[in-house]
């Protein structure tokens, strides 16, 4: 790529500037640089779904850019004169006038696809396209006196360049988190031209890297909205219930009159409180929890209408209040022991041709399978932040959530610029979802091999997320070490990262990968720290729906069901076990899974097929969770 500044990261609106990677060659011995102060996007637009605005979903035209000519400018003439797709030019009108200008693009008359959604599923010829595509959407708007205009993108995978009427509005890196760009001074009366360059390519310095076990779908994968606010507006408001019985939080204003403003917060009809913003537009909130407050639980996911008013602006939210804590080997929800009956979930798990366009009905259908089909109370959202729609439905339906960013397998651990990307993604996730009572666990990594630089990287992430949100617990999906002791196989956690974690979690596939038979699982011993709860964050076995055999062989439904029986029996002997999230609810696409009979580009560890057919193991896990639920607790 010819733009060196963007090889690292340019996050639109961020208060911290990232330097060029070439200027920040790290010392391999030193590890990542010290963690900066917690990052905060310049604009959050919390609860933007409830604000005055315009949805920009629908048909967008597009143009593939295989040679990235829309971003390059070779010697100042090739791209700029003919190929920069974001230019505000009506080429057809120029042709009608008999103009002699020459262009090698025309987004006005290009092919179109439905947005949001990954291009890989929209058009057959783009199934495995990996690179840059330009998208265009025209909309009518006009500047409004005394009002500000923002574009809020819920996700563009992986890098985004945003132009309005030919002028750059912002850039962003990271495929699963929201970003906001202000366009107040870029709008014009009548028709406006919005152009977005979406680049799906990953490299050694991206998060994740190109090596994954899921499909790295490209495009504008989540909704885009044009949002209007007053000149001074409520950018963010958050509240949480502490174990001390108090509700605390903050309100932040943006704009020329953000200081010394009275902010008023009402929690349904239960309580109200006011505070005055400081010179930075922040007002701290602190009040005793009302006696009539009903605490959020999976069985009774009570949500309250929260209203915040300040400087003539109104912000509306739906929020629940609960506490989450650890006591020795126990997880405590509202002070009571909690066992997590869950499963892992990929966002693209819907239908035979998933497009990572998670609509509310689709998200509800998947969560319903967990809540009511499996008798679950918990979902591990893997391996990246899922859509805001999914998180809000988890709040409503009563499913506890593990959330993570894609620091997964391989990362450039020694590179300070890559660490800053991870911290920025973390911040974008936390600020988006910290009002969701369902979220109880922030994960700082998945299956990363132990090394000094890697541990320092994850430790920095743990410190960062605690600074951003001290009200939730921190975990990570760790690898386990297998060794022999006294003639027996022993599974142990040998990872210095455990010192940074509230909840330990391990991924184990004994009986599927490796030499262990299912019968051998009964003889496996686990050596675990006794002072913290453990979650089996992953275990699983592939099965092709409908494939059965008279004997026990892999890829059959019987083998998968027997694998679950053996693994659940093994888990029952773990004295610190506090939850399960097996891998995975539904079969999902993964280009690395190439077996021509059983996989064909799909990871088949789902308890449901890609079309929703329940496999035998679904019933095994559902029966186990039903018994767990009947034993009491949440």
From TrEMBL:
Family matches, as Pfam families: Glyco_hydro_2_C, Glyco_hydro_2_N
GO molecular function: beta-glucuronidase activity; carbohydrate binding
InterPro entries found in the cross-reference section: Beta-gal/glucu_dom_sf (IPR036156), Galactose-bd-like_sf (IPR008979), GH (IPR017853), Glyco_hydro_2 (IPR006101), Glyco_hydro_2_AS (IPR023232), Glyco_hydro_2_cat (IPR006103), Glyco_hydro_2_N (IPR006104), Ig-like_fold (IPR013783)
Signal peptide feature range: 1-21
Domain Glycosyl hydrolases family 2 sugar binding: 119-230
Keywords per UniProt: Glycosidase, Hydrolase, Signal
Top-level taxon in the UniProt lineage: Bacteria
GO terms of biological process kind: carbohydrate metabolic process; glucuronoside catabolic process
Domain (Glycoside hydrolase family 2 catalytic) ranges: 324-564
Family designation: Belongs to the glycosyl hydrolase 2 family.
The protein's name in its UniProt record: Beta-glucuronidase
């Amino acid at each position: 790529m010819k733009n060196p500044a963007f090889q690292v990261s340019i996050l639109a609106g961020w208060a911290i500037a990232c330097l060029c990677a070439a200027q920040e060659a790290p010392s391999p011995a030193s590890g990542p640089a010290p963690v900066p102060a917690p990052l905060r996007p310049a604009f959050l637009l919390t609860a933007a779904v409830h604000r005055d605005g315009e949805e920009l979903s629908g048909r967008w035209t597009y143009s593939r850019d295989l040679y990235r000519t829309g971003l390059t400018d070779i010697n100042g003439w090739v791209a700029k004169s003919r190929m920069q797709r974001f230019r505000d030019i009506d080429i057809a009108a120029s042709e009608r006038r008999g103009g002699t200008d020459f262009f090698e693009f025309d987004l006005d008359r290009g092919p179109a696809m439905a947005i949001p959604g990954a291009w890989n599923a929209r058009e057959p010829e783009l199934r495995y396209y990996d690179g840059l595509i330009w998208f265009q959407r025209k909309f009518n708007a006009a500047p409004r006196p005394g009002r500000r205009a923002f574009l809020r993108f819920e996700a563009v995978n992986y890098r985004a360049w945003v132009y309005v009427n030919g002028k750059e509005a912002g850039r962003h890196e990271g495929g699963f988190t929201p970003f906001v760009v202000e366009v107040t001074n870029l709008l014009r009366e009548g028709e406006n031209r919005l152009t977005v360059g979406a680049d799906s390519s990953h490299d050694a310095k991206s998060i994740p890297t190109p090596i994954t076990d899921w499909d790295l779908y490209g495009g504008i994968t989540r909704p885009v909205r044009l949002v209007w606010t007053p000149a001074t507006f409520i950018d963010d408001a958050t509240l949480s219930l502490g174990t001390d019985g108090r509700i605390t939080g903050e309100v932040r204003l943006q704009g020329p009159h953000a200081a010394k403003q009275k902010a008023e917060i009402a929690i349904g009809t239960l309580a109200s409180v006011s505070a005055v913003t400081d010179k930075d537009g922040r007002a701290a909130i602190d009040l005793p929890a009302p006696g009539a407050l009903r605490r959020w639980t999976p069985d009774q996911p009570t949500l309250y209408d929260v209203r915040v008013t300040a400087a003539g602006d109104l912000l509306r939210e739906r929020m629940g209040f609960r506490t989450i804590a650890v006591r020795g080997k126990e997880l405590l929800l509202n002070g009571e022991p909690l066992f997590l009956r869950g499963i892992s979930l990929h966002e693209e798990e819907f239908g035979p041709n998933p497009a990572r366009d998670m609509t509310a009905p689709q998200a509800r259908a998947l969560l319903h399978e967990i809540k009511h089909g499996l008798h679950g109370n918990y979902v591990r959202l893997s391996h990246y932040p899922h859509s805001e729609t999914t998180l809000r439905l988890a709040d409503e339906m009563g499913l506890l959530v593990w959330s993570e960013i894609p620091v997964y397998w391989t990362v450039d651990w020694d590179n300070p610029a890559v660490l800053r990307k991870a911290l920025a993604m973390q911040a974008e996730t936390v600020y988006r979802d910290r009002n969701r009572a369902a979220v109880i666990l922030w994960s700082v990594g998945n299956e990363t091999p132990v090394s000094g630089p890697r541990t320092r990287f994850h430790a920095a992430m743990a410190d960062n997320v605690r600074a951003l949100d001290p009200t939730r617990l921190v975990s990570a999906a760790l690898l386990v070490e297998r060794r022999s002791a006294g003639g027996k196989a022993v599974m142990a956690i040998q990872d210095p990262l455990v010192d940074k974690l509230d909840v330990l979690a391990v991924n184990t596939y004994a009986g599927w990968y490796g030499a262990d038979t299912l019968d051998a699982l009964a003889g496996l011993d686990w050596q675990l720290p006794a002072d913290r709860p453990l979650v089996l964050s992953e275990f699983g076995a592939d099965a092709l729906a409908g494939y059965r055999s008279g004997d026990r062989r892999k890829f059959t439904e019987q083998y998968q069901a027997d694998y679950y029986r053996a693994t659940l029996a093994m888990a029952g002997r773990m004295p610190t076990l506090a939850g399960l999230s097996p891998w995975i609810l539904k079969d999902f696409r993964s280009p690395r899974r190439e077996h021509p009979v059983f996989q064909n580009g799909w990871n088949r560890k789902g308890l449901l097929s890609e079309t929703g057919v329940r496999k035998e193991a679904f019933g095994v896990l559902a029966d186990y969770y039903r018994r767990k639920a009947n034993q009491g607790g949440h």
